[in-house]
Every structure is written in C-alpha cells, then in structure tokens.
C-alpha cells in the first residue's frame, strides 16, 4: 500500500495504491491530520515486533552455527542398526536446518518490510494484521483469514 498526498483548498487529495489499484479520495485537512496522527500511534508498537524479530533471528543464527558438524559427520558404521540411527539423525538435522533457513528468510523479509513501512499489512488483502497474530508470529505476511484461505488451497 502506497499513499501519496496533494494539498488543495481546505483539504488533501489522497491517492492510495493497493495491489495495482488506485483510489483517489478528497479528505478535509482535519480528517487527514487525524488519520496521520492515528497512523503514527499505530506504528509505535512495531518497534516491539522488530525487537522480537531480531531476537528470533539471533537465536536461529546461534543454533545454526552448531549444526554444520552434525551434517558433516560420517554415517559410516559396520553395524547396520547404528548406521540407520546415524542416517536418521543426519536426515533430521538436515530437515531442521532447512526449516531454520526458511524461517530466517521469513524474518529477513519481515525486517525488510519494517524498513519499507509495510510491516503489519497483509500482502494479500492489504488490511492490517492483528496484533495478536504478530505477537505469536512476528514474521507473518498474511492476516488470519488470508492465511487460512492460502492453507486450504
């Protein structure tokens, strides 16, 4: 969502672009100022989410540093049972590393959205993502209804 403004007599022409669509609205000056004030108030908790994102990223990076040894370890063993156990452990380690890598990408994307000013806005419908969802999953890209719709498809 991008918002542009242009002043005119006693008000503002507000141009909003969401998902390729352009909406033009004339707003009285007082309404525009109130909207800007409210938008600033809403943005302040985003520092909390950014802190949560950075903390989670640091946790994942720290745990990732210990994983290369486990992936590089040899699974060779004369005992068939021990070979199967080592292979299963290595497979589990690889899957875990892949999940961490994906989560790190999601967190980096969320931090980029923070910097770009679009954090907390659903990438599908353009609505604000609920604070409860962002507290639970700070890197969420979609609001709950859109995520449910995506999960079904």
Spell out the key features of this protein.
single chain; 153 residues; alpha+beta; 6 helices
Outline the structure in words.
61% of the residues lie in helices and 15% in strands. The chain is α+β, with helices and mostly antiparallel strands and 153 residues long. The radius of gyration is 23 Å and the shape is elongated. 9% of the residues are buried. Residues 40-44 have low confidence and may be disordered.
Give the averaged pLDDT, no decimals: 77
Order of helices and strands: EEEHHHHHH
Strand order of the largest sheet: 1-2-3
Distance between the termini: 25 Å
Runs in which pLDDT lies below 50 for 5 or more consecutive residues are 40-44
Output the structural class.
alpha+beta
**Rg from alpha-carbon coordinates:** 23 Å
The outline comes out as elongated
Count of alpha and pi helical runs: 6
User: What level of helicity do the residues show?
Assistant: 55-70%
- Total strand segments: 3
| β-strand amount | 15-25%
Task: Summarize the main sheet.
Answer: 3 strands, antiparallel
Quickly describe the structure.
With 153 residues, the protein is α+β, with helices and mostly antiparallel strands.
Secondary structure: elements and pairs:
Layout: E1 2-8, E2 11-18, E3 21-28, H1 29-43, H2 46-65, H3 67-72, H4 80-116, H5 131-136, H6 144-152
Antiparallel strand pairs: 1-2, 2-3
């Amino acid at each position: 969502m991008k918002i542009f403004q242009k002043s005119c007599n006693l008000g503002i022409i507000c141009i909003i672009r969401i998902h390729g669509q352009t909406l033009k609205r004339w707003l009285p000056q007082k309404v525009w100022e109130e909207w800007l004030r409210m938008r600033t108030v809403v943005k302040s908790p985003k520092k909390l989410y950014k802190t949560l994102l950075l903390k989670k990223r640091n946790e994942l990076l720290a745990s990732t540093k210990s994983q290369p040894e486990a992936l590089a370890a040899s699974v060779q063993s004369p005992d068939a049972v021990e070979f199967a156990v080592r292979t299963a452990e290595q497979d589990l380690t690889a899957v875990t590393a892949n999940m961490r890598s994906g989560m790190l990408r999601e967190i980096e994307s969320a931090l980029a959205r923070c910097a770009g000013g679009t954090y907390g806005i659903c990438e599908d419908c353009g609505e604000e993502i609920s604070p409860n969802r962002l507290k639970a999953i700070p890197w969420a890209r979609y609001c709950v209804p859109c995520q449910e719709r995506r999960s079904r498809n």
